[in-house]
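Input record (Table S2, row 686):
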Amino acid sequence: MTTGDASLSTLCGVGPTRLKALKELGITTKIDLLEYFPRRYQLETAERPVAELVTDLIQNVRGEITAVDYIAGASRSRFEATLRDESGSLALVWFNGGYLKRVIHPGQQLRVKGKVRFFRGLPQMTNPKWSIITDETPAIEKSVFKPIYPASSRISSDTIAQLIHDHLSDLLELVDEWFEDELLQKYNLLPRKQAYRLIHVPGSHREAAQARRRLVFDELMLLQLGLVSSRQLRDGRLSAPVLRIDKTLDERIRSRFPFEMTRAQLQAAYQIAKDLQQRQPMNRLLQGDVGSGKTVVALYAMLMAVANRLQVAMLAPTEVLAEQHYLNFSRMLEGSNVRIGRFTGRSKRTEKDSIRRLATGQIHIAVGTQALIQQDIEFANLGLVVIDEQHKLGVHQRSVLQNKGYAPHYLVMTATPIPRTLALSYFADFDVTTIDELPPGRQPITTRFVRRHQASSVYQFVRQQISAGRQAYVVVPQIEDNEEDTASLLKKFDELKSRDLTGLRMEMLHGRISPDDRDRIMQDFRAGNVDVLLATTVIEVGIDVPNATVIVIESAERFGLSQLHQLRGRVGRGEHPSYCFLVSDAVNEEAIARLTAMTEMSNGFEIAEADLKLRGPGQFFGTRQHGLPELKLTDISQEIELLTIARKEAAAVLESDPGLQKPVHKHLREALIERFGDSIPLARVG
Ligand code: ADP
Ligand code: MG
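Output record (magnesium ion complex):
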């Protein structure tokens, strides 16, 4: 899109007050205004003579009030009026319309709008909208299809509509076509300029839908082109180490695991092994519901790399999780030659030594938090990077590694199953493997939504589980890592300790506890020396203690669906039946619906889809860590058809015109560079 003279103030009719009101809506340039899309449309029908009214439709009528009456009823009072035009009379009824006695009088000219019904052959409107006609009231002469814009108290939808309408041809000057005619025809897409026009001033629902479809297509194409072209660049330039594996190695690796891998785990491991045998760097997303056993699949790949004399870095989102992986791997690899280092950035002295041994290749697997690759750490021969429980490896981390001259394979494991629509869009540059089966013998988790006042019976139940030898989590929301939150956790701790859970061995885990204490507490919990772990969401991801069978989530309404599912996944990891209690006093309808849904849904993919619908992709990802442009118009969960087309056609466009050098793609190329900045390889071509 041509920037031109972008400023809004050059449009006539836009003074300082309006500019300010528009700015509050995020509109500061002409393009912002053009891309301020209607939320919906409304049909405003032309005024009709009474004699031409038809039943059941909402219609506008104007005429003179000839009679009024107020009927005070015991239960329901009503105000009645008769409106006449040259062709006939219309009965109007407003229930509870007592106040109208003082406003509507015979002799007035009124315009009413409402659904028409016939009683004994006479037309009637119940509770119509009305306005008194003045000299300034224009007649609605022809039916209009009216856009409704998101508005504010300072500027109405009508004003925005008027502004856009008045300047539309000026604004449309800024729109250029992005694609070849052939492509547009193939999918029956409107020209870009026309789409921008019709989305603001459509003649019908159909036109509005066509306009929207074209613009959604453009958003999706832009996203896909960005992703596909970075992928092509990466695949073309980088070459990763080629790994080997044979039957002996496969068996040797698997014999390290304390259980048989499931069919789904094996399939995933073999798919990854296949990638690792290519020179092209692997970029794979491993997804599977919580508890599906992603860790050993990753370990399989890691051991394959080590057997090929390459080093592995495994990054976890929290120190607690890094520590757990470290302990877990150390246990499984006891007595082998594989050396594991722990890099959580805390014990300076021992880590200094580990850093040295990593650089000389004496450490094979480095387990740490994200800090691991940001630090000044050198690898002797880095071949694989595994990222646990993250949606995506930040572009930043990747380039840190690349700048150090490493071109490893990447395996990313997701904390939340990625709905298909997102997998096709934000993860377009990943290959996806799904583990669609849980390890055998898993018990279903019973989920209950309980009110605050029932909480003590919940804690009663917790006590029973603990006397049966099990363990429990209690989770309280954390808003920020600040003193107030810590204080509320402390309060909860004292409250439980002195009342519901007296006598039990209870510990607390939150962001402000020193790393050493944290390790000690987790160790004690794993060893069964702690009955109840009271925690903020630090336990959200990854923690694996199969003997824990109850999780109580306090103020559960503050969590998103996927987050609740993650939390719930801390239990049900062993052979015992497990329970999740969502404690909430929420009165808000949406929150209640959400919590109720949790008691009915157990499949992480379904939950993720529902969460995506409720909160949109930005929220779904937590912080906007995907680093990709926000989609203005597209509700990605609804656009599977266009998404699939865009994915295919983006690849085709880049195939036929790799650097987007053809004149017809000039504007597309500019738009891409504008949207993605220099990170897009196209910026460097030509
Ligand atoms: P997640 O996919 O949530 O990261 P984990 O890798 O933590 O799941 O595995 C969950 C639990 O299941 C762990 O206790 C793990 O040891 C166990 N597990 C994984 N795979 C199997 C299997 N094939 N058979 C039995 N238990 C398994
Ligand atoms: Mg995990």
